[in-house]
UniProtKB/TrEMBL annotation:
Gene Ontology terms, MF aspect: gap junction channel activity
Subcellular localization(s) per the UniProt record: Cell junction, Gap junction; Cell membrane
Gene Ontology, cellular component aspect: gap junction; plasma membrane
Alphabetized Pfam families for the sequence: Innexin
Name of the protein in question: Innexin
Alphabetical list of PANTHER family matching this protein: INNEXIN
This protein's record includes keyword Calcium: no
Annotated source species: Caenorhabditis japonica
Broad class of where this protein is predominantly found: other
Entry keyword set: Cell junction, Cell membrane, Gap junction, Ion channel, Ion transport, Membrane, Transmembrane, Transmembrane helix, Transport
Transmembrane segments: 7-27, 69-92
Topology class, membrane: Multi-pass membrane protein
InterPro entries per record: Innexin
Length: 155
């Protein structure tokens, strides 16, 4: 296992835990621990809870906290999805191969780039995707990911 990847996955999980803790603290302070406060607000149940401050009476502050409530839920869902995805990438070799193959150009691309007089440098009739996934593996995945990110931000 790659130490850098393990550390990266750990930070993904710590981010998720941090978001969950922040969401719980916001619900504990603002709605006395009622985690479904935002759902009740959208459903029309207003001022059902005994609040510690006068924020629910202030319309603007109430809407700001309602926005933050749903923002935290979105951030938690995205963070958990990312943590599960990278955990699977770290721990499941079959998913690693799939991810590597997804980032590689197709064999048709190799043929177009080499032209009609292409020479196969790979042993036998092996597929370039299989060769790269088998022999270069995880290192190639990070390199392809780096190239993809550079291509996205290269204007």
């Amino acid at each position: 296992m790659c130490t850098t990847m393990s550390f990266y996955v750990l930070t993904k999980w710590l981010t998720s835990i941090s978001l969950l803790a922040q969401f719980y603290m916001m619900a504990k302070i603002y709605a006395e621990g009622e985690l479904l406060w935002g759902v009740h607000q959208l459903g029309g149940v207003i001022n059902e809870f005994v609040m510690r401050c006068i924020l629910p009476q202030n319309f603007i502050n109430s809407k700001v906290f309602l926005f933050l409530y749903w923002w935290y839920i979105l951030a938690i869902l995205v963070s958990l999805y990312s943590a599960f995805q990278f955990s699977a990438l770290l721990l499941v070799p079959r998913y690693q191969r799939y991810s590597i193959k997804a980032l590689l150009p197709t064999p048709e691309f190799f043929g177009e780039q080499a032209g009609a007089d292409q020479h196969n440098v790979l042993p036998g009739d092996s597929d370039p995707h299989e060769y790269f996934a088998d022999y270069l593996g995880f290192v190639l995945f990070w390199y392809c990911l780096k190239l993809a990110i550079q291509k996205i931000f290269d204007y």
